[in-house]
Amino acid sequence: MTQDELKALVGQAALKYVVPGELVGVGTGSTVNKFIDALASIKDRIRGAVSSSEASTARLRAAGIEVFDASEVEELSVYIDGADEIDGQGYMIKGGGAALTREKIVAAQSRRFVCIADESKQVPVLGRFPVPVEVIPMAAGRIIRQFAALGGTARLRLRGDAPLVTDNGQHILDVSGLSVTDPLAFESQVNQWPGVVCVGVFAHQKANVCLLGTSQGVRTID
Ligand code: 5RP
After folding, report:
1. 106: CA distance to ligand 1 center in Å?
2. Catalytic residue at 187?
3. DSSP assignment of 19-35, as one string?
4. Prediction ipTM score
5. pTM, to two decimals
6. Which ligand 1 atom is nearest residue 27's CA?
7. What is the pLDDT along the chain (222 residues), one digit of tens a residue?
């Protein structure tokens, strides 16, 4: 199976976690796009969605699914999203699609995080994929130096020749060279640096269930 087919497989499998009559939290990325396509087939059985990015909002609306503002909703039963890396404990690196801040917000208001990913995303230790960090632009230089002190190399993410601007109007640093052996401590530490909006290590908001697409089918890890 191709990677695209594996993504479609887990996108479809995630439907079983959607609670009829309720709102569903929806992440961002190519795997989630497959989930949104599958969700469209049961749109009459859900109330709508809370989205983690402008891109997912546009896709949900195009599929005829109503999108609610996260701040109008107290709690969601489930949040479904992809990952750039996931380890055996459900800790993840996310933000390859630059949507990490809103993803973490919607994940935090959800009782259950279901991660959907193809098997290439599974790792023993987080860090091979550069850790995305959303930052306030005026703090970028200082944060780059703070990562250097930890042994990481932080680079400003570009779109074309200009810095990429997130849905929140901020910038992204991608930090390579780190081995995130204690994701909970790492997330807490970086969160405290002035100018960090969100670090793309999801340890405090880890996945409760992971649906991994493999050539043998969907493997559920919970
Ligand atoms: C976006 C994310 C995505 O979940 C992550 O990048 C995985 O994306 P894809 O499903 O396209 O591989 O965190 O900010």
Report:
1. 15
2. no
3. PTTSEEEE--SHHHHHH
4. 0.98
5. 0.97
6. 4
7. 899 999 999 999 999 999 999 999 999 999 999 999 999 999 999 999 999 999 999 999 999 999 999 999 999 999 999 999 999 999 999 999 999 999 999 999 999 999 999 999 999 999 999 999 999 999 999 999 999 999 999 999 999 999 999 999 999 999 999 999 999 999 999 999 999 999 999 999 999 999 999 999 999 999
